[in-house]
Amino acid sequence: MGHLVAVKERQSSTDEMFEPLKQTIELLRTYEQELPETVFKQLEELPEKWNTMKKMAITVRQQVAPLQANEVGVLRQRCTALELEQQQLWERLRREAPF
User: Fold this and answer.
1) Name one GO biological process term (predicted).
2) Rounded to an integer, what distance in angstroms lies between the CA atom of residue 73 and that of residue 88?
């Protein structure tokens, strides 16, 4: 779940990152600054990999949704049981209070 949240939080900033990188590389190229071929290769591959990661996150989120819903139900039952126990303890304290 933490990874899904991280992808969601970084989605807009990462989507906006690729175009400025391309522009920076083009600017360096105009000033005849040579970059390693791996930089160009990564610049081509990374947007595709990021899109694949976003699609995978959506798929995983859909797969996890039923498990989350089930866990929410379990937590609600526990909270209800805790409230009932707390109420019973409060009533017992009022009946048997030492003061």
Assistant:
1) microtubule-based movement
2) 23
What gap in Å lies between CA 32 and CA 46, rounded to an integer?
Answer: 24
Q: Up-side HSE of residue 14: CA atoms within 13 Å toward CB?
A: 15
- Give residues with Cβ within 8 angstroms of 38, minimum separation 6: none
State pTM to two decimals: 0.64
Range of the domain at 73: 1-96
Task: Say how many domains are in the chain.
Answer: 1
Contact 4/61 with Cβ under 8 angstroms?
yes
Residue-level length of the chain: 99
